[in-house]
Amino acid sequence: MKHLKAWSGYLGLVAVVLLLSGCFGEQNLTALDPKGPQAQWIFDNMMLSLYIMAFVTLVVFAIFFYILAKFRREDGDNEYPKQVHGSTVLEITWTVIPILLLLVLFVPTIIGTFDFAESQAPDDVEDAVYIDVTGHQYWWQFDYEEGFTAGQEVYIPTGERVYFNLNAQDVIHSFWVPALGGKIDTVPGIDNTLWLEADEPGTYMGKCAELCGPSHALMDFKLIALEREDYDQWVEDMVAKADVEQPEDASVQAGYDVFQESCISCHAVSGPGSASGPTLTNFGDRKTIAGYLENTDEQLEAWIRNPDEFKQGNNMQPFPDMPDEEMDALIAYLRSLEVREEGDPE
Ligand code: HEC
Ligand SMILES: [Cu+2]
């Protein structure tokens, strides 16, 4: 009975793990369900090493149990069997086999590692996308060649390699989109490079994968892959939006004034952006606030009044005493900062 209980406990644990891995799968936050060629490559090699390990384990255990059975002491065995010391054949065998197995893993690993760090598209590819990534405590900045900046959400076209040049402003972070490929550190003063490719349009979760301070675990971002023509449209809209200084819509003028007064020192809404806070050119399109809070008006107000409640140790100034009508105007203005329309492909 006791054993049965212990076993049902283990089974329960397995069920929970399976359930949890299910949730991760849905948010595209798993390396076990690859959505691009690089992630597929990593997955295949992981499986290869798993099969090799399983094979070695099986062989070793098979020999082990065979020997246990064969050399078991029988009734009447009162003497030591013949003792063997050293065997050149065996020594060579168990040295050569692991070398061969390691070579099988080594060669593709080296080829892949160099391929992933490729920083330039081949000459015959004309309109490859290059994006500069900067890690900050605790948010991500994405600078596009077209002269605009996005924060927290990076847009790429599907079906082609997109080249990232990665850096950090303060401490070491690590850029990781598990469903699309390998992670790479972003290091102040050092340029690291990585390309990623998404097979299908979709939203892929990203994480900071290097402990970088108290809110490290909340340093999430999203990679949004669009078909090439939708992506080109998005770039065009972002370029147009990044040129706008004054709001086009007079109803948000009051909020714009509050923003100019209190927020513009850290947050750009146009041009190539700033480095002290996320650029908000398309904040209205964000699925989340600060990478992880649902983007609702209530959450937005709570964030502006006390960001530290959500992300401990972050570098935004709190505005606990902002009058309600200023807050409402400000939120209306922030909502107007969008380039995507309802019905645009996700
Ligand atoms: C001292 C600089 C500073 C000031 C002033 C400031 N912010 Fe921030 N803000 C930040 C930083 C830094 C972050 C990123 C926080 C994080 O995620 O770690 C941020 C994040 C945000 C975000 C989330 C952005 C995103 O991409 O999801 C919003 C919205 C925001 N701020 C609004 C405002 C508003 C509105 C004001 C003015 C009332 C303001 N901020 C004033 C520095 C500032
Ligand atoms: Cu980080």
From TrEMBL:
GO terms for biological process: ATP synthesis coupled electron transport. Its cofactor is Cu cation. Residues 23-120 form the Cytochrome oxidase subunit II transmembrane region profile domain. It comes from Alkalicoccobacillus porphyridii. Residues 250-338 form the Cytochrome c domain. The lineage of its organism: Bacteria, Bacillati, Bacillota, Bacilli, Bacillales. This is Cytochrome c oxidase subunit 2. Its main location: membrane. The chain crosses the membrane at residues 49-68, 89-111. Subunits I and II form the functional core of the enzyme complex. Electrons originating in cytochrome c are transferred via heme a and Cu(A) to the binuclear center formed by heme a3 and Cu(B). The gene is coxB. InterPro entries: CcO_II, CcO_II-like_C, Copper_CuA, Cupredoxin, CuRO_CcO_Caa3_II, Cyt_c-like_dom, Cyt_c-like_dom_sf, Cyt_c_oxidase_su2.
